[in-house]
Each structure stands twice: as C-alpha cells, then as structure tokens.
Design a protein that fits this description.
Blueprint: H1 5-19, E1 23-31, E2 34-41, E3 44-51, E4 58-61, H2 74-83, E5 87-92, E6 99-107, E7 113-121, E8 128-133, E9 138-141, H3 177-185, H4 191-198, H5 204-213, H6 227-246, E10 252-256, E11 259-264, E12 276-280, H7 284-332, H8 336-349, E13 359-364, E14 369-374, H9 381-425, H10 429-441, E15 462-465, E16 471-474, H11 478-488, E17 494-498, E18 506-508, H12 517-529, E19 539-545, E20 550-551, E21 560-561, E22 566-570, E23 577-578
Antiparallel strand pairs: 1-2, 2-3, 3-4, 5-6, 6-7, 7-8, 8-9, 10-11, 10-12, 13-14, 15-16, 15-23, 16-18, 17-18, 17-19, 19-22, 20-21
Length: 579
C-alpha cells in the first residue's frame, strides 16, 4: 500500500478543488479517531472522512453518512463550537509531507472574524488530527501525546505545533540535480531504498517505480551508480515530481490475480506480466473507497473460509500420510511372485534333498538361470514349499486389499484437493455455502441435525461472453462443475479443464455454430485461470465436446472421465467480458 506523500498531494488537490470556499454544515465523530465533516459548496453537499486510525489512516470523500454517538466526544464538541459553521479558506500540504492542513475562517463569540487550522497527519501509528490557533498553538487533538509517550513532540493543548523531523530527508519537490546526485552517491543503501529513505513523502513502491523508469536495478547500492546513471535517474525522478507539482495524477489500482495488490496516484509500470492488471479512477477518493472495500471483502472471505480451509487441510494431511503408508505396503507385496516360484521349484527339485539343508540351488525355468532358495532345515521339502506358497497367498491378499484401499485414498485426496481449489477461487460469502454443504455430505464436517433448515443457495457459475459472442460458463466448485457440464451444456458444446490438476469445468455454448480459434484460446485461458495452475506461465488444457464427457461411476460431484481429447497450452487469464 502506497499511502505516501504523492497520494496525499493528489488528495489535497481534489479536496482543494471541491472544498475551498465551502461552508462547514456538520461535524460528527463516528469513531474515537475519526471525523466526518459535511461541507456545502456551490450548491453541492460533500462529506469528507478523516481517520487517524493507527492501522488504517485515511482521508477521502464518501457518499455515506455515518451517525455519531448520542453524546459527542469533547474533541468533536470543541470543533463544533469554533468551526461548526466556518468557511474553508485554504487546503494545503506542506512540501510532500503526509499532512493535510485546512485553514478555516469563523466568527468568535464577539462576532469577530478568526482563523483556525485543522491538521490531519497520516503517518501510520503516529497519525493524528490536530486543531490549532492561527499562530500554531494547539487547542486540542483527537489523540493526546505526552512527553512520556514521545520525546520528539508533545501534542497537548497549549503546546506549539510543528512538524517533527526525526530523519533528515530532502524535499523532493525542491531538490536540485547536484543535491540529488550527492544524496544518492553518499548512500550505501540499495537505490530504491535510498530514494524513499532520503526523500520526504516517497514510498517503497515509488522508489521501485523510479528505478524501473530509469532501467536501473533497484537492488544495486546507490553509491555504485555512475554519473550517467545518476543523471538519468534524476531525469526520471524530476519527470515524476513535475507531474506531482502540476497535478497530473492518474489514480490507479494494480490487481494481482484479480486481487488488489497496490495503489498509487501515478502509473505503476513496474508491475509487468499477464497476472497484473491496472484499473484507473477518476478520483483518488473513489480509488481509496474501492481499494479498501475490496480488501475488506477479501479479508472477510479469508476469515469466513478459515475453518473450512483448516478442515480440508487437516483431512488432506491425514490422507497424504495414509496414502504414503499404503503405497509402501503395496510396494512390499511386489516380491510375492518370487515366493510362488520358490514353492513351485521346491515341488519340482525337492526330491534331490536328503534333509537338513539350509538352501538349494536349482534352475529357475521361468528366468532361465540358477537361483538359491533359502530353506528351514527342520522342515521337509514339501513343508518348505507350503511355507512359501502361504507367504505368496498372504502377500497376494494384501496386494488386492491395498490396491483397493490405495485407490479409495487417492480418490479422497483428489476430492479434497478439488474442494481446496474451490476455496481458493471463492470471492463471496455465498460461494462458501455450497462448499460447506459438500463437506457435510461427504462426512468431513458434522451434518446438520435431522430436520435442520438447509441454507439457500444463491451462488451461480461465472458467466462470460467471448470476443466472438459465445457464452462461457465456469463452475466455482464441484456442484457447479456438475451443473455446467451435465445441465447447462449440450452434447455439441465444448468442455475445457486443466490437465491433471484440480480446477473448474469450463463450457462454451456453441449454439450449433463452429467455434473460432480465438474462443478456444479464451476458454482455455479461463480453465487455466480457475485452476491450481494459475501461477504458472502456461497450463496444458484438455478440451473435448461435451457428449464425450461421462460422469465418473461412484465418484464425487464434478469428477468425470473422457478419452481421445484435444490439448492446448493456455496462458492463465481472464480475457473476456463477465456478465
């Protein structure tokens, strides 16, 4: 997350355009470290959320109204008293600091015009909202910071406000090329790290982006850069800073495998490859609302699915161990035929023994060579032969039983891995309902009491449309795989699945038409994406007409068999429109 000085600059510009000259109509404090300020400006009502939460400091415009407590906190009451009907004169950011300042004009008790300053510092765990007089004297803050808490700066009523500078950093908006080159040349840190540790307001991702723009390895020590490289690095850096000064921002979120990975107020070209997609926004506020709401959904889904993942993983580990043991026991039975041959040879050559021998050497007429057969000297040749036949029969019975058990264990492993893959692609809470039902049905979790109410199934398969207008359906779990293959698909439709790994069934509805190559490629890419191979560069995909796909006899839902299929190599991705 790049909530840095550049994002703050973009926020400041947006707030400045919308709120300067506006009149405050309402101030609420819905949380202990959050303010919601309503401003009317040019006939428009806007709500600005200011959060000094230590784990998630934010400033953004919001369309939703969050009511405060019945009794307003002291800080909120103070703001209402002084600036409850004030006018916002100026919105500014000092340098490229992670600070936004609001200069507000209001009438005091005597009816005279006064000015106050509301400051929000977006500095991680040190975030705060501070209310000051025009001369910088602190009136109050949403968080009090005493000398016992911080030796750098006290944030208490009556204390002077100043921006703490715990690390000597240069202002990136004012630094000259000579000063920049000296700063880099003197730093033993990697280039990308030197950028954000020596310059105010830059984040690690911006440091990486500048290095990428300059085609310089960000892990190289900055002190090793040549004069030419330093010049080029400064040019790329200055181009970025010029965009910031001129307000040329491009708010965007970079998605990795459809999951929001990073955001910034400038384009992030350092993310390369098919697994990364960038989405731009009209405003930084819209970006922030989208990013954190999507992150919240993903976090919530992971929390909701944690118990299911734990159940599946525990069952998988147990079955892996059981399967390994069964495989070992099965391998031990491979020598059973040797004991049968020993018994037959003893019946053939046993007449040569006089009794008391510990071994016999005779011709193995199966292999055409001599073989030594160990003997129990206390047993007759016939008894030794019977002993070997008994060992053969025991191993034969073990082999038959273990072969069946091994197949059952392998089926259960495949089933559990398919459920695990379904959990990986679940994006909504309703997607988890069918997975939980499947785990109940197959005894992995306790079934609901008899007569218990079944949950309503609202999750449906993904529905895409190819570039050539063909409907494509993708199952999200085993039940939906069965649905798209045996209910939605007709015999002439095409069926796709990642070869040899858990994944979704993908069906293309042909409507009696012939599929173009592009549709085959797009369906294959979907089958690769919704499989365990999505992190691979390419995935082998089996495809075949639906009429040749048969349900596996006695198998779990979604398990099928097919023969004489075609294959293609697909790059995982979603290259089609979702409906």
């Amino acid at each position: 997350m790049a909530f840095d000085g550049i994002v703050i600059a973009n926020l400041t510009r947006d707030i400045k355009e919308k709120l300067e000259g506006g009149k405050i109509s309402k101030i609420a404090q819905p949380e202990k470290d959050e303010l919601l300020i309503t401003v009317k400006n040019s006939g428009e009502t806007l709500r600005l959320s200011l959060s000094a939460n230590a784990s998630l400091p934010l400033v953004y415009f919001t369309g939703s109204n969050r009511p405060g407590p019945l009794t307003a906190p002291n800080f909120c009451m103070l703001l209402r008293k002084h600036i409850g009907t004030g006018r916002i004169l100026k919105v500014s950011q000092p340098g490229l600091e992670r600070i936004i300042q609001f200069d507000i004009e209001h009438l005091d008790e005597m009816g005279d015009l006064c000015r106050k300053r509301l400051i929000i510092e977006l500095m991680g765990k040190h975030s705060n909202i501070i209310f000051c007089r025009e001369d910088g004297t602190i009136l109050d803050s949403i968080k009090h910071v005493s000398a016992q808490v911080s030796s750098v700066r006290e944030v208490l009523p009556g204390r002077p406000y100043f921006i703490p500078h715990t690390v000597d950093k240069a202002d990136p908006l004012a630094i000259t090329e000579d000063a920049f080159s000296s700063l880099m040349a003197e730093s033993p840190l990697p280039v990308q790290k030197a950028l954000y540790q020596r310059l105010t307001g830059l984040s690690p991702i911006i440091g990486t982006e500048i290095c990428h723009m300059a085609s310089i390895d960000g892990d190289r020590p900055a002190s090793e850069l040549s004069g030419m490289e330093l010049t080029h690095l400064y040019r790329m850096f200055s181009l970025l800073m010029e965009d910031v000064r001129e307000g040329r921002f491009t708010p965007n979120i970079v998605y990795e495998d459809s999951i929001p990975a990073e955001f910034a107020a400038v384009p992030l070209t350092c993310f390369e490859g098919s697994r990364y997609q960038a989405r731009t926004f009209d405003s930084i506020s819209a970006l922030l609302e989208t990013y954190y709401s999507e992150k919240s959904v993903i976090t919530r889904i992971r929390q909701k699915s944690a118990d299911l993942r734990r159940i599946v993983q525990t069952a998988l580990e147990r079955n892996y161990k059981k399967y390994d043991l069964q495989q070992k026991q099965l391998k031990d039975t491979e020598k059973r035929d040797k004991f049968r041959i020993y018994g037959e040879l003893l019946n053939t050559y046993g007449y040569q023994l006089s009794g008391g021998e510990t071994e016999i050497t005779c011709l193995d007429y199966y292999a055409g060579k001599d073989v030594k057969i160990p003997l129990d000297p206390q047993l007759s040749p016939q008894e030794n032969a019977q002993k070997y036949f008994a060992r053969y029969n025991k191993l034969k019975r073990t082999c038959e039983a273990m072969t069946e058990l091994t197949l059952e264990t392998k089926k259960e492993i495949d089933h559990l891995e398919s459920i695990s893959a379904a959990l990986d692609i679940a994006v909504k809470e309703e997607d988890l309902v069918q997975i939980r039902e499947e785990l109940m049905e197959f005894g992995f979790i306790r079934k609901r009491p008899q007569g218990g109410k079944k949950p309503k199934i609202t999750s449906r398969p993904y529905h895409y449309v190819s570039s050539d207008g063909f409907d494509i359906y993708v199952g999200k779990n085993n039940y939906q795989n069965e649905e798209v293959t045996f209910k939605l698909a007709d015999g002439g439709d095409w069926w796709f699945h990642a070869k040899g790994i858990p994944g979704s069934h993908v069906v293309v509805k042909t409507g009696g038409r012939e599929l173009p190559d592009r549709t085959f490629e797009e369906a294959g890419a979907l089958a690769a994406w919704y499989s365990r191979g999505r992190d691979s560069e390419k995935v082998e995909i089996d495809y075949i007409q639906r009429k040749h796909v048969k349900k596996s006899a006695g198998g779990a839902p979604g398990f099928v068999i097919y023969h004489t299929n075609y294959s293609l190599m697909a790059v995982p991705g979603i290259n089609v429109k979702e409906l």
